[in-house]
Specification:
Layout (H helix, E strand, L loop, with lengths): L17 E2 L4 H7 L3 E2 L3 E6 L5 H14 L4 E5 L4 H10 L7 E5 L9 H8 L6 H15 L3 E5 L1 H8 L2 H17 L3 E6 L8 H6 L2 E8 L7 E9 L8 E7 L2 E5 L15 E2 L4 H6 L4 E2 L3 E6 L5 H14 L3 E6 L4 H10 L4 H7 L2 E5 L7 H13 L3 E7 L1 H6 L4 H17 L3 E7 L19 E10 L2 E11 L9 E6 L2 E7 L3 E2 L7 E2 L8 H4 L4
Parallel strand pairs: 3-7, 3-8, 4-5, 4-6, 6-7, 14-18, 14-19, 15-16, 15-17, 17-18
Antiparallel strand pairs: 1-2, 8-9, 9-10, 10-11, 12-13, 19-20, 20-21, 21-22, 23-24
Helix pairs in contact: 6-7
Length: about 500
């Protein structure tokens, strides 16, 4: 959080009510919205969403019965109407003042002063603006954009003086103003930052593969404590959907840290009673070894108790997961249909990390999910531009879920199937429990082994057990005491007689 101090001797009350920006996400970032009767700056390259979020600001005012005004030097009324229509908005409550009105195209006297900004007198432009504001008596104004004003001024000094004149004029009229700037200047125009009460930067990033990413940052906001850093957002029908950066310290909830049963007594015994609420567990192993199946057992057990669970799938489709569940005898489809389990397919090429974190929060706070499964971190990693950011994002997300009393199960696939294996991302230090799953070979058969290699809370078995996936679910065998090197990738049998497999032990093959 960051804020500038309020100067001493300020003659206005410091507890003035805020006004909404028209965006729920931006209001959240600012802790309530804008201070009224101030001048703010939205800056960003073309296509970042400045016009859309500015219209949201005016529509919010119109809905509250205020007079609002959109002053445009760069877009026509018909263009703005089209934008509004595609967002499902009506501009009937918004006054639009075009400084380049189409009906004057044949007026020789106004042609040189209105249609060609480079030749237009700056003083005439400001007079037209002042006259429009006086006539409408608006409490909210958007000025789009400063690029034309900068061209008219022709010098930085004159430009600054004109912006200051606008600021003083609007302040004297108890009017909240949003200026738009498309950053067309050759370098950052920091003098605008010093004049504006607050500055919001909007960015559009092109990544190597997948959809573009958009993010927002509050650069400055005088006297307001705001959530700093970048916040992901998307432009959807209805305006900008902003996802405030998750800060775990802002979310605390009392809960009882009791055990969360897995539905398998042997597995709970191996875990020293089970996994506690408010903790997270990392399931790590090769592809196909049973990590997702193990995670599914927790989701099914949760639904059987009447609790909600959510399964975020980055790698596999719903059909594949449901087919696996049927093979294991797990009634996944029934619980998805009842709403107790929510399955959400994630496309890492289309979803930003901020949007994903917002989806997790929604599952917990709105749907009441008690178990969150992320399958897998490999897919989540692909959504991040840098794995350093993944660690930071995951730390905040896990801390938040822990403070909400949610059991989080993370799936991480290692590179390779047998022998020495590599882990693409070391996140074990963030995990409260780590379960290692591994293939091993004996007497011409491929077997699976499971062990709890880390658990911060409570006692757990330190043995390595064989386990099997079948129509009866997950079955655990006795400790593999006569083997060494199972997890190193070079297992060696040290006993006198090769043990039977779990299939042989119960008469199955």
């Amino acid at each position: 959080m960051a804020a500038e101090s309020i100067p001493e001797g300020h003659d206005e009350p410091t507890n003035q009510p805020r006004i909404s920006t028209g965006s729920e996400g931006l209001d959240d970032i600012l802790g309530g919205g804008f201070d009224a009767n101030r001048l703010y700056l939205y800056e960003g390259r073309p296509g970042t969403g400045k016009t859309t979020i500015a219209l949201q600001f005016l529509i919010e005012g119109a809905c509250r019965g205020e007079r609002v005004l959109y002053i445009t030097l760069s877009e026509t009324k018909s263009e703005l109407t089209l934008v509004a229509h595609r967002h499902g908005w009506s501009l009937s409550g918004i006054d639009i003042f075009e400084l380049v009105p189409p009906e004057t195209t044949l007026d020789p006297e106004r042609e040189l002063t209105v249609f060609h900004p480079a030749e237009m007198e700056l003083s005439e432009t400001t007079k037209l603006v002042f006259a429009a504001v006086d006539r409408i008596n608006a409490t909210r104004v958007v000025f789009d954009s400063l690029s034309e004003l900068r061209l008219l001024a022709q010098s930085p000094l004159r430009y600054r003086r004109q912006v200051l004149a606008l600021k003083h004029f609007f302040t004297s009229r108890n009017c909240t103003v949003v200026l738009l700037d498309d950053l067309s200047a050759s370098q950052d125009d920091l003098q605008l930052h010093s004049i504006a009460h607050g500055v919001v930067l909007l960015e559009q990033l092109a990544i190597d593969y997948g959809a573009e990413r958009r993010r927002l940052r509050v650069i400055k906001m005088r006297g307001i404590a705001f959530r700093g850093g970048f916040h992901d957002f998307t432009i959807e029908t209805g305006g900008l959907k902003i996802f405030p950066r998750l800060i775990a310290a802002e979310h605390h909830k009392a809960f009882i840290g009791d055990f969360t049963p897995s539905g398998n007594a042997e597995l709970d015994q191996l875990l020293g009673g089970g996994l506690e609420r408010g903790t997270n567990a990392l399931l790590i192993g090769g592809a196909g070894v049973g990590k997702s199946s193990l995670a599914l057992t927790y989701a099914i057990a949760s639904a059987e108790r009447g609790e909600h669970a959510v399964f975020f799938a980055f790698d596999e489709g719903r059909g594949t997961v449901e087919a696996r569940a049927r093979t294991l005898g797990l009634p996944l489809e029934k619980h998805i249909a009842s709403g107790l389990i929510r399955f959400q397919q994630i496309d890492p090429a289309e979803l930003s990390p901020g949007e994903f974190a917002a989806g997790v929060r929604q599952s917990v706070e709105r749907d009441g999910a008690r178990i969150v499964i992320i399958d897998s971190l490999n897919g989540y990693l692909n959504a991040m531009p840098d794995d350093r950011f993944l660690i930071l994002q995951m730390h905040e997300l896990l801390s938040y879920l822990g403070q909400q009393g949610v059991l989080t199960i993370l799936v991480l696939a290692q590179h390779g199937l047998v022998g020495p294996m590599e882990t693409p991302l070391d996140i074990s230090y963030l995990s409260d429990a780590v379960l290692m799953l591994r293939y091993f070979e004996l007497a011409g058969t491929v077997r699976r082994a499971l062990s709890v290699v880390k658990k911060r809370s409570g006692n757990h078995e330190h043995t390595i057990r064989e386990f099997r996936l079948s129509s009866a679910g997950i079955t655990l065998g006795p400790p593999l005491k006569e083997f060494t090197g199972i997890f190193s990738g070079t297992p060696r049998f040290t006993g006198d007689q090769i043990p039977k497999t779990l299939d042989d032990a119960d008469g199955r093959c």
